[in-house]
Amino acid sequence: MPGSTVQARRTAVIMLTIPLLAGLSACSTGGQNLTRSGFLPDYSAMKPTKQHKKDAIFVAADYAPGAYDKVVVETVEWLAPARSDDIKEKLKADFRTRLVRSFGTRYRVVDAGEAGPGTLRIRSAITGIRRSRSKHG
Q1: Which of 16, 22, 79, 124 is 20 to 30 Å from the Cα of 101, by its Cα?
Q2: 81 and 128 Cβ atoms separated by less than 8 Å
């Protein structure tokens, strides 16, 4: 199926890039176990990363980073336990802003209507949250 290869490449970029964003608190598992929320249809090909043993990535064998010059960052999905609407919307917006900023250093960020050949589509979800421990106390 031609769409499957394209989708695999797009997924590979998402899974490859998220560990590079580990400096962003929203992108790291921060000591939490990998969640299997149903966001991905299949987790069997996911492998632990060298940097974070509790994180997992998938890189398609035919992934070609030079094939992309644009990126669409979709609205972040919420699959974590219930929180107030204000908190959910703030966290989703902050995470998406950080994704746009990070991917924007390498790709031109475009709206879905401008997507075409050479465009990555980033789908993301918040599947769990916890308060971080203070580094100062």
Answers
A1: 79
A2: yes
Residues of the chain with pLDDT under 70: 1-34, 132-137
Cα–chain center distance at 81? 19
- Show the beta-strand stretches assigned E in the chain: 47-48, 56-57, 70-73, 77-78, 108-109, 119-122, 125-126
- Summarised one tens digit per residue, pLDDT across range 97-117 is 999 999 999 999 999 999 999
- Alpha-carbon span 5 to 132, nearest angstrom: 38
43-54: buried (b, 16+ CB within 10 Å) or exposed (e) per residue? eeeeeebeebee
> How far apart are alpha carbons 73 and 54 in whole angstroms?
25
Q: Please report, to the nearest 10 degrees, the dihedral formed by the alpha carbons of residues 56, 26, 9, 100 taken in order.
A: -160
Please tell me whether the overall predicted TM-score, pTM, comes out greater than 0.70 for this model. Answer: no
